[in-house]
Specification:
homodimer, about 475 residues, alpha/beta, dopa decarboxylase, N-terminal domain, Aspartate Aminotransferase, domain 2, Aspartate Aminotransferase, domain 1, 3 domains, four-stranded antiparallel beta sheet, about 45% helix, globular, lyase (chains A, B)
């Protein structure tokens, strides 16, 4: 494709993209396809000769689009959102054109220094201790794994990096019983083992009980095990429960355990000063992660981690082979040493575009709007005597179910699962579920960039219709 | 930013992007900035109120652009390229607009099935065993770490995942002494320890000596250590040396050791049938990784891994918490279970656009052109009696240096370092270096998408001018 054609096709795509963004709510949220449908429509081999862009783009519209889940549809209420925004998309266009690989300062000084600056901006705006330093990762999975590794190496004096596990260390990692799967994955990867992830009891709000944490630590110490790290949640994945950050920090300090705060989804709420009490007392914690790519109108992928002592992270990962050495290595941040992959995209650019285009007030307005819509939906559910809400609505996630005192939990689970499935099968919206105390609940997450009252009203009408059908079937 | 403004700004950016791509060779390859220059130009806090896009974009041009290293400049000859292309950029525009998070089949069926298909296409086109299956990662660092973890878990019967290292396992990983730093990093992360990365001797071409590998394995077995994995290189980072894949596969088979083939950069050459002899005998190896984002005109990030038995990888990573369960989990590929991060971008789309837009013949033509230019540059260097080439030019990387029989290696290293530095200081091109047998060499990598004869001619003139200055100073 020559440069002239690129210009022409680029303009065509911008119009398509703008049309898509204008009409994204008209797309089915989930596609009506069966496993293998798309695969079967694609030829078995790559073409030998290049094809015209018209043909490729027609196939994109004919084959790919009908198989997409439309995460940006305002009626996507599942999981956590991965919301995007116009300024973020514009930044991605520039990033992909520059094609800079930002592993080292020298490989793009502006990217390294903008990364440092936008992390500073976010740290200040969120009320994180101003001595902490930030960096960008792809996902919270990777960032949390990095934190575990830094804790592991700090504790072992970098001996596991050097010689591997000796078996003398019996590390224990603590999290609430509502821990995210990425933490299970990280304790496996790091060689600690899933059995050494201690699931601390939660209270009736699904928040970790600090006394139970302390008991677990003391119990392990008495057994000769080594408490390494506590991962607290500022917003669990199931129900957005908030662990008591300040109290956990004190426990961690007393036992010299690394305290990592996983605020992957809900951390964006700290842009609202009224939510910053949630991290009071975090100053003596060690690390904190949140995903602008979830609720901060920044394209996936973009995770930001803050650390009290980044030197442990850097020492865990840094190794400078001859072919990467430069005479500036002592003076600059080579962010390749702050995480797992060597190569890095220029993700700071989209954070910069988003932060400047919205401004902090603009972001706060969006968040407050989502929280306002959530209060509204919550009030509808609470007013319906057939339904119950099973967890505090701390942010913009409502965990609810149909309930009936004559029916067993098992039967209720079946009904609620069926209810959600039939609602999702309309393809007009999408919910996902979880279980709280073995009870199947539907999660309603209201955080899409352009979600408005009409979308939640339509969802509520549809939910009630489907419930009627489900309980009368 | 409203939708109308997005349309307007999108068109403006496409013109800027097309202009940039047309004029990318006119930008300084590296920026003339000092550490801290860019950081100091950015305000200390995020703006409270949103700013006009004109102002943001003006700052992008004023502050960011002068601080960029222009990886897409055809005179970027350093490291390995991260070349991109017009079809790939167009795909990135669509990906960022759809904003799909492709962790599971259900979260975007088309993305999962297109991923499976384009990996099949690449497997066939590269001559990889047709029973192997592929998946996409962000980088080779992460893919290789994944392979090490799969080997670890296969060997331990998934017991390290479960209970952590007991210290009974003393795993050993083997690679040539020219191993890439990502492998050091991966053995650290996985808890094996850098000391257990055995650097096997290489021959005069910097290729691993299979007999030395076998000796190392037998030696370790005699010591009660456990050979876990061999990582062979199809193109080392320093000099693009090629390890004897078939012979190493036989050694690995004899000792039941996982054989991972790291073809991160040079693997793209396998699209040329005449290079496929390099992987003859790979059928009984276990995994293979290459980076379309290096030399296959596909935007960073995009790594493809192939596996003989992907079930070990999947079993290493899979865990399905309640909130991710679907009733299709047994029937589909949930690629979240094929790697480390939970969240995943829709990277298959850009591979599809690139493969279809170029066609395999179009890609081969590009590669052959780069290889032809490399032969040309190699011939110029060989004809200059002051210079020597210190490694076979297997692909499109030339490792050369100034040499003089009166001077010590140390002195020559100084001269060559100075030569490269002064050449790079013109900002008209960019080379990086390595050391081969302690000799400082300049690496000339000719793989930018639009590199032409005029660019290597200009580089050669500049190199000779700077050499003249360096040796006469």
């Amino acid at each position: 494709m020559d440069k002239n054609e690129f210009r022409k096709r680029g303009h065509e795509l911008v119009d398509w993209m703008a049309d898509y963004l204008e009409s994204k709510e008209s797309y089915p949220v989930t596609p009506d396809v069966e496993p293998g449908d798309i695969y079967a429509k694609l030829p078995d081999n790559a073409p030998e000769e290049g094809e015209e862009f018209d043909r490729i783009f027609a196939d994109f519209q004919r084959i790919i689009m009908p198989g997409m889940t439309h995460w940006q549809n305002p009626a996507f209420f599942g999981y956590f959102p991965a919301n995007n925004s116009e300024p973020s998309i514009l930044a991605e266009m520039l990033m992909s054109t520059l094609g800079a690989q930002c592993m080292s300062w020298i490989t793009s000084p502006a990217a390294a220094e903008l990364e440092e600056k936008v992390c500073d901006w976010l740290r200040e705006a969120k009320g994180i201790n101003s001595n902490w330093k930030g960096c960008i990762h792809d996902t919270a999975s990777t960032a949390t794994l990095s934190a575990i590794l830094a804790a592991r190496e700090k504790h072992s004096g970098f001996q596991i990096n050097k010689s591997g596990f000796t078996g003398k260390e019996k590390f224990r990692v603590y999290s609430s019983s509502h821990v995210h799967s990425s933490i299970d994955k990280a304790v496996k990867i790091s060689g600690i083992g899933e059995e050494n992830l201690v699931r601390v009891d939660v209270d009736e709000n699904f928040s970790m009980i600090p006394e139970a944490l302390e008991r677990a630590i003391r119990h392990d110490l008495a057994q000769g095990l080594t408490p390494l790290m506590v991962i607290s949640a500022l917003g669990t994945t199931s129900s957005t429960a908030v662990d008591p950050i300040g109290e956990i920090t004190r426990v961690c300090r007393d036992y010299q355990v690394w305290h990592h705060i996983d605020a992957a989804f809900a951390g964006t709420a700290l842009l609202l000063p009224e939510y910053q009490t949630l991290i009071h007392g975090h100053d003596e914690a060690d690390s904190y992660v949140f995903n602008p790519h979830k609720w901060m109108m920044t394209n996936f992928d973009c995770t930001v981690m803050f650390l009290k002592e980044p030197e442990y992270l850097v020492k865990t990962f840094s190794l400078t082979p001859e072919y990467l050495k430069t005479d500036l290595d002592e003076k600059v941040n080579n962010y390749r040493d702050w995480g797992i992959p060597l190569g890095r995209r220029f993700r700071a650019l989209k954070l910069w575009f988003v932060l400047r285009s919205y401004g902090l007030e603009g972001l706060r307005k969006k968040l407050r709007h989502h929280l306002h819509l959530t209060k509204k939906a919550e009030s509808w559910i609470r007013a319906d005597s057939r339904l119950e809400i099973l967890a505090p609505v701390n942010f913009n996630t409502i965990c609810f179910r149909y309930v009936h005192h004559d029916l067993s939990t098992e039967k209720l689970n079946e009904i609620n699962e069926s209810w959600m499935s039939t609602a999702n099968a309309t393809h007009k919206l999408f919910f996902s579920h979880t279980k709280l105390n073995d009870k199947y609940v539907i999660r309603w997450v209201i955080g899409q960039t352009d979600v408005e009252e009409k979308h939640i009203e339509a969802a509520w009408v549809l939910l009630k219709e489907q419930l009627h059908k489900t309980i009368n079937s």
